[in-house]
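I am still getting used to backbone structure tokens and would like to learn alongside you. Label the sequence line and the structure token line clearly, so we can match residues to local backbone shapes. Would you write everything just below, so we can both look at the same thing?
***
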Amino acid sequence: MPAIVDRLSANVACPRRVGRPSADYPRPFAGYRFIAGRELCQAAPPADRRTRLAEELGKFLGSLHAISAAEASHLGAPTDNLGRLNIKRRSEQTREQLLKAAEQGLIDYPTRWERLLDKLLSVCPEPRRACVVHGDLYSRHVIVEATESCQHEDARLAGIIDWGDVHVGDPAIDLSCAWSLFDVHGRQQLLRAYGPVDSGTLTLARFRALTHSVTCLVYGREAQLPELELASKDALHWLLEE
């Protein structure tokens, strides 16, 4: 992270202090410069107050994904060891999570999202190791500026936190936020700011947004995180917008 932080267009949680395990504390740890603001799901600006945020996030992802796989690997970035775009495994998990969400009363019927999943599976390409990616970009890791009028003014990006999943992977993993954080208008704004994206990457991004959002929905209920639960419900409805 210290090698790339100055090339990114937003504040990021870059380690300033790194500690190794010792008798005093048995695990590695890191210290970061504080990024003032609120998690996006906590601030919860309405969809029509996210236009500026979409543009800023698109530009940020463009600057991040400009770092090639070769350079990122040279700097020590690992590859994806969690199978975030393992199509078969993630689709099976998504069907299970949709049923669980319906059983818990979080969604009415899973049919609409099952149909979307089937549609995406019919055209999903194989993921690539193309560039450096954040790896876990969702509403708890996007920090927006804390203002008293976040419901009436456009949200502004304060920074991106939690880089523990950074790796060399497919840009679709991060671009999934175009569906999980924005309605169709915000998504278009983000993609315009980001730059050209091929249809295969867009399909994978939508697939990732679906698999991740339904998982976050169930997790939000089980972990008693109502703000994440509501944000995940929004994401699932935005995913159905063409």
